[in-house]
Amino acid sequence: MPPRPSPHAFTGPLSAGLLLCLTVLPTGCSPTGTAGPGDSAATAASRAARTPSWAGGLPAVPAAALPAEARATLALVDRGGPFPYAEDGSVFGNFERELPGHARGYYHEYTVRTPGERDRGARRIVTGRHGEIFYTDDHYNSFKAVLR
């Protein structure tokens, strides 16, 4: 009489697939190689697929993840104002060259209120002529492309 397989033995195609999944999942995988610390492969791949070419390699953030004041400024931009500061809508010169290069007049900036600040603060939304949106919270030292 042949020996009976253990009821706990893994055999057959289903078991092989389960074993493969258990081996691959803990290590993660990313077809783009963009997984960062704490990112799942799916998150990294989704972010890479959603980051538009106009972002110029800048990190991207969904509009919903911006501070409430930045979302309020975006709503004002969408409506065409009125804006709370005279400087809102003025040409952004991109002198720091943090944004992709374009001719002067391509970008315009808008103040994002900062609670507790007496002046305009450091936060801005910068828009491009073709609908690009960027956010900075450190007065133009760094930007994130805003995804809508």
UniProtKB/TrEMBL annotation:
InterPro entries: N1-like (IPR000026), Ribonuclease/ribotoxin (IPR016191). It holds the Pfam family Ribonuclease. The keyword Cytoplasm does not apply. Keywords: Hydrolase, Nuclease. GO terms for molecular function: hydrolase activity; RNA binding; RNA endonuclease activity. This is Ribonuclease N.
